[in-house]
Every structure is written in C-alpha cells, then in structure tokens.
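Example protein
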Amino acid sequence: MKPMRTMLAAATIAAALATGMTVALTPAAGAGTTLKAAAAEKGRYFGAAVATGKLSTSAYTTILNREFNSVVPENEMKWDAT
C-alpha cells in the first residue's frame, strides 16, 4: 500500500509542476512584440549601450530603433576616453 501511495503522491506533484510551468511560461495575451513595447507596457525603459562606430550600420540602427527606447554611450564616456 505504501509504494502505491508514494507513486500517487509523485504523480500528483508532477502534474502540479507541469501545470504550473505551463501557466508560468505561457506569454500574456497582450504582451509586446518588441522589447521596447514589452517594457513600455510596464512603464519602463529598455536600453542598450552603443558604440558610436556601430551607428553607421543601418541594420544595427534599425534594430536599436525597433527594440530599445533608451540608448547610452558604450565606452566613449568612460574616464580613459574623455
């Protein structure tokens, strides 16, 4: 009787964990489609540190504009650079 009770308890715990993980990992229905939109939904900013040399690459700036709503200098404003 005891092994059957142990197996039943283990199965119950496994089912509860599976249900909990499904709920936790399912995205919200109104979740933003970009990082910027998801942050804006929560009233937050999502930013990136960017090297000025990369700003001349159009693919890079397109991603920056789409995904981030805050940009700061990467290394250009560190003590040794200024």
User: Anything to note?
Assistant: The helical segments are 2-25, 35-41, 58-67.
